[in-house]
Fold these 2 entries.
Entry 1:
Amino acid sequence: MSVNGDQTWAAEAACASAPPDALFVRGAAQRDARIRCFDCPVRMECLADALESKTTFGVWGGLTERERRALLRQYPNVEDWDSWLGSDDVTARELRLPVAPRIITRLRQSQASLRVP
Ligand code: SF4
C-alpha cells in the first residue's frame, strides 16, 4: 500500500495483526471491518491508497468496494485522492468524520439533483 509513494502509514494500521481475510468479507461482517477502520489512526491514508489503486475488493479506509466505486464514479477527474480527501469538498469532509458515512445515499441524492426532470 502507498499514498503518493509513502508506505510508512501501513505500520500503524489497526488491521496490521488481523488475519488477511478479515477485510475481504461480505454482509454483516463488513460492519465489523468498518468499525475497526473507524478506530484506525491511518484510515484516510488507507482510503486514499485504495482509491488511487482502485482496489476492487474488501473494506479499506472504512468504505466497502461498493462505496468506493460510487466515489470513483462521482469524481472521475480526481487524480490525487490524498489531497482530495483533505479538501473542502462536502463529501471529503463527511468522509473525514469519525463515523461511518452514508456515502451511497449522499451520492445518489447529488446525482438525482443533477438529472433534468
Ligand atoms: S482503515 Fe481499515 S483497512 Fe485501512 S489500515 Fe486501517 S483498519 Fe486496515
Note: The pocket of iron/sulfur cluster is lined by residues 13-15, 23, 36-37, 40, 42-43, 46, 60-62 (CB under 6 Å).
Entry 2:
Amino acid sequence: MTETGAPQDSPGSGLTLIHPRYLVAVRPQGVVLEEYSVAIEQGMIVSIMSRSESAQAYPQAESIELAEHVLLPGFINAHTHTPMTLLRGYADDMDLDVWLREHIWPAEQEFVGPAFVADGARLAIAEMFRAGTTCFNDMYFFPDVLGEVCREVGIRARIGVPLIETQNAWASDIDSYFEQGLKLHEDWRSEPLLNITFSPHAPYSVSDETLRRVAAYSQELDVPVHLHLLETKWDIKHSLQHHDVHPLVRLKNLDLLNSRLLAVHMTQLSAGDIDQLAQSGVHVIHCPQSNLKLASGICPLDSLLEAGVNVALGTDGAASNNDLDLLSEAQTAALLAKGISGNAQAVDAFQALEMMTINGAKALGLESLTGSIEVGKAADLCAIDLSCPETQPLYHVVSQVIYAASRRQVSDVWVSGRRVLDSGQLTTIDLKEVTGKASQWQSRLSGFGNRKNPA
Ligand SMILES: [Zn+2]
C-alpha cells in the first residue's frame, strides 16, 4: 500500500519519517503492516509508504527509528474529569451516592478553584501522555483554566462547559455557566487543539429548562453534549419520581437524543433502549472500571456494538478508577463483554482498539482529524515497545497490545506532530513540579471532612 500526499518538489527537509517495526493505522480495519514508515510535516501525516520507498522519496528527512515498536493512533479518552486526579484514592470502596454526596462534593466545594484545576490537570495529562493518550474529553469546573493548561502542554481536548443547578467557585448561577461557556466557544474558534462541549452533569442534577437551552445551543453551534446518563438504577427511579418518565424519554422530549449526544456510562439499558440509541445515533461512552469500582452496573457493550451503536472508551476521573490508563480500560472492556455475554468472540482485540481510537474520534466529532493514521489527518500517534518479555513471543500484534501490553511500554507520543513523550521522557511537562504540587494538595486535603481511609 502506498499513499502519497507529499508535495511533488519536496526533498524531505522539514519532514520527519517515523520507522516503526509494525504499523497499525486502525484504518483500513484489522491491517498490521510491517516495515512501513509514516511521514509527518507541519503536524500532519503526509505519507504512509514502505520503508524502502520512504528512504528514496525523502532522503533529507529526519528519521526516528522504532525498531521493536508498534505505531498506533494516539488514544482518545472519551470521558474524564482531569482535575479530579488530585482526589485519586481520596474516598474508595463505597457506593456512588455516598462517594459523591458525602466525600467528593464536599471536598470540591472546599478546594476547587483555578489552582486545583491547573495542578490536577497537569498531573492527569502527564499520566495520560505516559499512557499513549493524545486527546481527551473532559467535564469539570474552570474549563477556561483547563484550556490554558492544554494549550501549554500541547494536548488535544474537548473541554466541557459544566452545567449544574448549584453554584460554585466558577459560576454563581446557570446563566453565568452558559455565558462563560459561550465565550469559550468564541475564544477557541481558532485554537487548533481545543473545542468545547456542553456538559450538563446528569439528568438528575439539571432542570428541563437548562436541558432545553443545551439542546438549542448544541444544534445552533453544532457542539456535542456530554452527559452522565443511566449510571445506576437510581437514575431511573429519580426520573420517574420527579419527571414521571424514564430519563431517555425525558431527553427525547427535550430534543437531546441525537448524534450530538455523548451518553456516558449507560449501565441500565433494555433491548428497546438499545434500538432507540442505534436509531438516534447517540454515542455511548463506556467506562467499565469506574462502573465496576462504584458497583454502578454494567454497560451491555456487546449488544450495543451488535446494534451498530458507536461506543468509545473513557476512564472517568481518577477518583473513581483510579487511573487514566486506556490500555487497561480496553482490556477490561473486552474481558467484561466476553464474561457477561458468555461469548468469547464478543469484542475482539481490534474492536477494543477501535473503541480507544477511531470510535472516540467519531464520538467527539473529530474523526476527520484524529483516531487513525491516515494521510491528511493530524499526527496524533503513540508507540509501544513490544520487545519486553511481557509481550514476547509475538504472534499477533493487536492481541498483544490489548491483552498483554501495559502503559509502561509506551515510549513515544506525538500530538499534532509535536513529540510530547520522547523515549519515555515528557517534553512539555516538568514531572518533578507536577508531583510536588500533588503532594502539597495531599497535605491540604488529608484530614478534611469525614474522609475514609482504606485499610
Ligand atoms: Zn464522570
Note: The chain has two domains: 3-73+378-423, 75-363.
